[in-house]
Amino acid sequence: MEYSAHANASVNPNSKTRVLFASLIGTTIEFFDFYIYATAAVLVFPKLFFPESGGSVALLQSLATFSIAFVVRPIGATVFGHLGDRIGRKATLVAALLLMGISTVCIGLLPSYAQIGVLAPLLLALCRLGQGLGLSGEWSGAVLLATENAPKGKRAWYGMFPQLGAPIGFILAAGSFLLLGAFMSDADFLAWGWRIPFISSALLVFLGLYIRLKLHESPEFQKVLDKQKASKAPFKEVISLHVAKLIIGTLATVCTLVLFYLMTVFALNWGTTALGYTRDSFLQMQLVATVCFAICIPISAKLAEKFGRKNTSIAICILVVLFGLCFSSLFVAKQPISVLIFLCLGLSIMGLTYGPIGTILSEIFPISVRYTGSALAYNLASILGASFAPLIATALANSYGIAAVGYYLCGAALLSLLAFACIRESKPSDAVDKALHNSLEVQK
């Protein structure tokens, strides 16, 4: 892995609290927006936007719109990566947040198929495309905002704060749907209640924008700008000079994304259909398991600081394989305790694998193309590991049983394990940062 030295504090340094909160609030908003779509894609959209198909066909069509966001994410990664590596992290993060927020609010205002016919699902797909483009630029920028402002020996710790946005966003999304279910009838929820989370996300977007607009550029990238060393063509440079790193980073991230979307979108769909659990009871179990997800993210950051990113990630991939072998014995009907254990185990392991991945991707690439490289790796992995994961898992479960879904997860984990094996092991970050600091002093 390559590491970049931390620049001296800029004239207007960012405060620790502001940096961490800005990186956390942005990804919380982004993932809240993304998860309310995922939940609605299972519970609402098949009935409102694809009523002509009905049943499982309507569900598959709805999940297909869910996949659109992942397919366009490499495009968004290229565009936002270019902006982030050319003009700076701050302005790019603001643009990504705006795009995601506007797209989400528009979904909440869309007319249904009964009102405007086939135009309704087309507009839904267009808004979903906007969500995907926005998220493709948000995640990498938030990670860089945190890691490039991190003090010596704290990169993995700072890098996990944007990752905490995932469970917090999920808790807010699932909690909002549970509250709506508790205070309104199913008919009212289907008629208009589902729109409330989408429209209310505008308040979170305003909060995120307010915080981010008060930030200064990260000290590491500001040094690049001051020396006029910003890459003129970041995408071209990544593809021509760092393609091996891009491939390794992409494959290393696949397991994380497969696991997450199996434990959220697929599990919600399968649990509320094939296994017969109610929507509210399953969301409650997922909500409890998501707390485990959140708790394990900082634990994984500490492990990565102490034992190195590579060793920690390989060990976690092995845990994922073992968990995949338990799918058919835990994810069963009429046994809510077993399902709760299944969800808690899966999302706990998800927290362990998710915590260090942002830091790992940011450390692979040089500063001048770091935004583009890490964004491309993460979003290419989204296509391989997330976009079609719910569809693939549903098809496997219908054809071969739930155990086949576990084997699918095992395959993804082994693929990522091989990728991590190709990354040079990092030392504990204190030692690395000390060596880099000494090297910088010698160069001066």
List the helices and strands and how they pair.
Blueprint: H1 16-43, H2 45-48, H3 55-71, H4 73-86, H5 89-109, H6 113-116, H7 119-147, H8 155-159, H9 161-183, H10 186-193, H11 195-212, H12 219-226, H13 234-241, H14 243-272, H15 279-307, H16 309-324, H17 327-330, H18 336-354, H19 357-364, H20 370-387, H21 389-400, H22 402-421, H23 429-443
Helix pairs in contact: 1-3, 1-5, 1-7, 1-9, 1-11, 1-14, 3-7, 3-20, 4-5, 4-7, 4-20, 5-7, 5-11, 7-20, 9-15, 14-15, 14-18, 14-19, 14-20, 14-21, 14-22, 15-16, 15-18, 16-18, 16-22, 19-20, 21-22
Description:
This protein is mainly alpha-helical and 444 residues long. The chain has one domain (16-443): Up-down Bundle (Growth Hormone, Chain: A). It contains 23 helices and no strands. The protein has helices spanning 16-43, 45-48, 55-71, 73-86, 89-109, 113-116, 119-147, 155-159, 161-183, 186-193, 195-212, 219-226, 234-241, 243-272, 279-307, 309-324, 327-330, 336-354, 357-364, 370-387, 389-400, 402-421, 429-443. Helix 9 (161-183) packs antiparallel against helix 15 (279-307), helix 14 packs antiparallel against helix 22 and helix 19 crosses helix 20. The longest helix has 30 residues, at 243-272.
